[in-house]
Specification:
159 residues, mainly beta, Porin, eight-stranded antiparallel beta barrel, 1 helix, 9 strands, 64% strand
Length: 159
């Protein structure tokens, strides 16, 4: 059961260590932010009022760009998450914020036992390199609150 998540975590950390040109100034035109995610999911359904709790590992890639010189950067993220209840989630969110904090809203698909369900999620994060994060995820008949953290490496690019 642990084989897939451990392999994924090793690959994520190897990918992060290859990011050579991280620059931590905010003087950039666009940026990529990559890193693993770790979430503790709390949720309940109409049929199960007792909250479920499960740990999830994932990987996320974000792209940011300034629309104008004086604006807050806007971006998009793509992520994959695997939890220990055999759920795999794929998500993409539109986001805004500076490297030290921001918020996002987007679509999520959850795959379990050959069944797929769709919903939305919203995320809020604060930090630098190691981020505290809060995520809310809603499907038709269930919702989850997921506090967690993300280890993200920024790569800022000046044109």
């Amino acid at each position: 059961m642990l084989k897939r998540p451990l392999q994924s975590l090793i690959l994520m950390l190897a990918f992060i260590s290859s990011a050579e040109s991280a620059d931590y100034s905010l003087n950039f035109v666009y940026s990529w932010v990559v890193g693993p995610t770790f979430y503790w999911n709390f949720g309940a359904t109409k049929d199960k009022p007792v909250p479920e709790r499960h740990f999830a590992l994932g990987f996320q890639v974000s792209y940011y760009r300034f629309v104008t010189n004086e604006s807050v950067p806007v971006g998009i993220n793509l992520g994959i998450e695997y939890d220990f209840h055999e759920n795999t989630r794929l998500y993409s969110e539109l986001q805004s914020g500076y490297y030290y904090g921001g918020l996002a809203l987007g679509a999520v698909a959850e795959i379990k036992e050959q069944k797929t369900k769709f919903g939305f999620q919203s995320s809020l994060w604060l930090g630098a390199l190691l981020f505290g994060s809060a995520r809310y995820r809603k499907f038709q008949d269930e919702s989850y609150w997921a506090p967690g953290f993300t280890l993200s490496v920024p790569v800022y690019i000046k044109e």
